[in-house]
Amino acid sequence: MSAKTSSAETSAETTMSDRKAAALAAFKDLARDPGVPKPDPILVVDGVTRRFGGLTAVEVAHVEIQRGSITALIGPNGAGKTTFFNQLTGFDTADAGKWTFNGQSMSGVPAHRVARAGMVRTFQLTKALSRLTVLENMRLGAQQQRGENFWRALVPSAWRAQEDAITEQAEELLARFKLDAKREDFAGSLSGGQRKLLEMARALMVKPELVMLDEPMAGVNPALTQSLLGHVKDLRDQGMTVLFVEHDMDMVRDISDWVIVMAQGAIIAEGPPDTIMSDARVIDAYLGAHHDAPLSESELEEQLHQAEAALEAEIEEETQK
Amino acid sequence: MEGQNPALTYFEGAPLRRAVIAFTAFLGGLIFLLAVPAQAAAPDQGLRGTLKLQGQPVNGVKIVVTTEGGQPVKEVTSNAQGAWVVPIDKPGKYKVTLDVKTLPQNAMIRGGNAVRTPTVFSGNVSTVLFALQLKGAAGQPADEGGESSPFLDQAAQLTFEGLNLGLIIALAALGLSLIYGTTGLTNFAHGELVTLGALLAYLFNVGFGLHLIPAAVIAVIAGGALGYLQDRFFWGQLRRRGTGTIAMMIISIGVALFLRYVFLILFGGQNESFAQYTAQPGIEIGPISAAPKNFVAMGIELLVLIIVGFALLRTRTGKAARAVADNPALAASSGINVDRVIRIIWTTGGAIAALAGIMLGLSQNLKYTMGQDILLLIFAGVTLGGLGTAFGALVGSLVVGLFIQVSTLWVPPELKSVGALAVLIIVLLFRPQGILGRRERIG
Amino acid sequence: MDWITIISTTVKSAIGVETVLYALAAIGINIHFGYTGLLNFGQAAFMGVAGYGLAVTVTVLGLPFWVGIGVGLAAAVLLALLLGAPTLRLRADYLAIVTIAAAEIVRLVFRSVQFRDVFGGSDGQRGFSDGFYALNPFPEGEYGIGWFSFNHRLLWIMLVGWVLVALSCGIVYLLMRSPWGRVLKAIREDEDAVRSLGKNVFSYKMQSLILGGVIGSLGGFIYGLAYASVQPDVFGTETTFFAYTIVILGGAARVLGPVVGSMIFWVLLVLVNGVLSEAVQAGYIPFMTSIQVGPVRYILVGLGLILLLIFRPQGIFGDKREIAFDVR
Ligand SMILES: Nc1ncnc2c1ncn2[C@@H]1O[C@H](COP(=O)(O)OP(=O)(O)OP(=O)(O)O)[C@@H](O)[C@H]1O
Ligand SMILES: [Mg+2]
């Protein structure tokens, strides 16, 4: 809990650029090895394994997430990123492993308790609550609502005041995410990109310390992407920690302070965004291990772009379903 | 709101209206077909009972009904199914006496009391119970021990019967499970396909005087045809409209209610049996005694299951069916004609459900609720195995059938289904996806 | 044909005992299915344990009427807990199968010879309603004008029934406008999303199951008291399916939907039943016997359910955009 107060204090006195600088400073002299210890980790994972029949979807020996930073989790399709998220957030039970959040053990803790502890995730396939209005979607995210107790729910005066406060907070966030015009619409009527925005805004209603975003930009048009990127950066500047999955390397480079690479269930490399893609292990993972000779810079770029285009097409297909 | 979202926009009803008309027409034809052997239903107020000795009906037993004061009301004898009915005009208390002299030589009433004094309530048929048992078998039915352990003998007998029941359930469950796997439909009307098979066979057998074997063949073919038509003109149309699975499930409940009571009107509320193979003398093989028809029936059931299983594993269509059940979208994109596969599944499913009905009618009685009564056991089998997996349904059904019969070693027979359903619930506690099912992916 | 009888029974059925008890069962299902998306196909069991709880307490144990009501309510809550614990983590279709199975278990136990001393076998129990009618404030007699009249017993049970319906609707109205109701509706939409927002989904589903079950159980009491008896087969799956038809007819996830649905449902059934039996008796429909009229109501319900879901899944008065379950 001391971590919480210290981050709150710092947010009062630091400016936005300081946040980024602080995060970058923390990563400055770190080794590039998978599982390298961080100076102030908010999340520490040890030996998490998940098998589906014969397939080992996740097998992470050790990884730490630095507090107050934006960390990207990348890796080829089927690397196990989503499954890893599911284990950490209690949506699926890991076969083995331990992890702590803010020093508090989270292994085996059910999903709703994980969220209450301040670790909130979004989903790769957006989960808008279609037949609730946008505003109701937002209100749902607020914690410790008096009116969510059965008996108090029967007495409107017991929860009205809190509801008004929640509504105010929700409207602020909606305005920030440019969804305020849609506040009374059913969430089901939003476009795919707007749903992504709504899901992120709704997650923020929980007031989390760690936000875990599973492909927040997939299927979002470039203009909206820019504003989404801005929102993610804002989160860090407000003192939150962000862990996100993304396939688009340009975006990863743009906003992340640190990158973790997963392949075939394991963490294979870590490093700063601008150099991680030249790591041999990463190239192997993305392009297959058949490249014996080292590639030139331009060849590498070319291949990466091809791979990205293929990935993007796939995501496009996925979201259009 | 403009309703751009596909989930909220509405749809045109025109093709569907056609579907409904077609469906109604199909049912109209069915009514016409089945109308021939229409019989008087049970009275809606009176007394009734069924006499059975070791599971076999006892006929020709005289039952005397008088008023409480001793005024004679009616005398009846039990029929070939062991059943007797006395309609009663005035509600009140009555005295029912079983004439012990008319019981078979080896039979006696458990407890010895041959008089019952039931009350008839207005609009109700009260059941009067006379439990029969073998003479000399005083308390425990398994007391008359031979050389080998009677308990084991009985266990062997019950295992045999359980296998028989399990195979019948499996026939019906296979279709249900494949339909679920390929279309997402939890079909509450599947039991009515079972009833339909049995009643069609009865129609050709008793109504038109055909021997049971050709009648059964016709019924199975008709069952398949009806399965095909049902998909072609009803469920297929609903799927094309994108009807949700929960909506389809509730629609199937409507179909089940509809069909069941059409059967009641056409067939009546009584129990019937086929014209042939009803009262076969039992033969004994080791500790197991059963009528020859049961062995033949089991042979046929096994054969059909093996053929269907083989077809699923080896033929192109079978593989395609399993692929569709696994992942319809992927199967479609890999060039499989999903609609054709589903239609084949419906046809086969209808045919083997009809066969299950005939087999059920052979080993028990024909009744308009026979499908409904077995539906939950079919569901139990399918669910135990894991919804949507073909071989899971087989395994689950056999487990259910065996469990039901063998449990009567300890559980009173009238509560045997309770045990099976309880096991279903308990298994799901530990394996929410069923025995062979897979967990769903999140996120 | 005796039109006066047909019309009078039809009009009376709009507010009759049947309408009341099915409205209560349907309000419960509306909470489960309409608001929370739980496919509880075992509602009849909730009515059954309540009715039998009252009957057995009074007749077998010889305890007073109020204790019987308490036992019935407790039995409904207990059933919800027993039913919910294993099933509420399951997928919707598994839940449907398990709840229907559980309801069958309850019914089979009630009608079994084994427990005949307690539950009375297939004849059920009677003679437990005196305590209730002793509270009747209406002196003996007929109340009403002309054919639109009820005797003092009917009037009393209908009054109590409608008060319970009004109370239940009031509770549903308050709850569904509160944050508690919001969580329920969100669970119906996507329970994983709700979980990710820190709500204990299992607990809310359980609360929904208990609340809907208890309201449904009031229907069981009304049945037992109105007919002064309970029989096991009254609480079969078809009762549950009738209630589902009513919910969809009136519009799922609408506060008054189940009440309106129940009124329309019974008016239609009684009307059709009356016209048909009169017509058969008068010989207008030569190919039908009067015994065959009974099943016709089930055929109509079946057909109605099919047509409703295909053409008006939002119910008669519903708004198609607000329809509470996925029709497509
Ligand atoms: N419920 C499940 N049952 C069986 N296999 C699963 C399940 N969930 C995931 N898998 C498998 O685990 C592997 C990892 O999947 P996961 O969704 O975590 O990948 P990912 O890294 O998120 O991929 P993408 O970038 O495409 O989203 C895949 O091979 C997938 O098929
Ligand atoms: Mg993923």
Q: Just give the CATH class of the largest domain in chain B.
A: Mainly Alpha
CATH architecture annotation name of the largest domain in chain B: Orthogonal Bundle
Q: Tell me what portion of residues of chain A adopts beta-strand conformation.
A: 15-25%
Described by the principal axes of the CA atoms, the overall outline of chain A is globular
For the termini of chain A, the CA-CA separation is 43 Å
- Overall CATH architecture of the domain at 18-122 and 239-309 in chain A: 3-Layer(aba) Sandwich
Secondary structure elements and pairings:
The complex is a heterotrimer of chains A (321), B (443) and C (328).
Chain A: H1 2-13, H2 16-27, E1 41-52, E2 55-66, E3 70-74, H3 81-88, E4 96-101, E5 104-105, H4 111-116, E6 119-121, H5 134-141, H6 150-153, H7 156-176, H8 192-205, E7 210-214, H9 222-237, E8 241-245, H10 249-255, E9 258-263, E10 266-271, H11 273-276, H12 280-287, H13 297-320
Parallel strand pairs in A: 3-8, 3-9, 6-7, 7-8
Antiparallel strand pairs in A: 1-2, 1-4, 4-5, 9-10
Helix pairs in contact in A: 5-8, 7-8
Chain B: H1 14-34, E1 46-50, E2 52-53, E3 56-57, E4 62-67, E5 72-77, E6 83-87, E7 92-98, E8 107-109, E9 115-116, E10 119-120, E11 125-127, E12 132-134, H2 150-183, H3 190-207, H4 212-241, H5 245-267, E13 283-285, E14 288-290, H6 292-314, H7 316-326, H8 328-333, H9 338-363, H10 370-385, H11 390-407, H12 416-430
Parallel strand pairs in B: 1-11
Antiparallel strand pairs in B: 1-6, 2-3, 4-5, 4-7, 7-9, 7-10, 8-12, 13-14
Chain C: H1 3-13, H2 17-35, H3 43-60, H4 65-87, H5 92-111, H6 116-119, E1 125-126, H7 130-134, E2 142-145, E3 148-151, H8 152-176, H9 179-189, H10 191-196, H11 201-227, E4 229-230, H12 237-250, H13 257-281, H14 293-311
Antiparallel strand pairs in C: 1-4, 2-3
Helix pairs in contact in C: 1-13, 2-8, 2-11, 2-12, 2-13, 3-4, 3-5, 3-11, 4-11, 8-11, 9-11, 12-13, 12-14, 13-14
The structure holds adenosine-5'-triphosphate (ATP) and magnesium ion.
Structure keywords:
heterotrimer, A: 321 residues, alpha/beta, Rossmann fold, six-stranded mixed sheet, four-stranded antiparallel sheet, globular, C: 328 residues, mainly alpha, two-stranded antiparallel sheet, binds adenosine-5'-triphosphate, binds magnesium ion
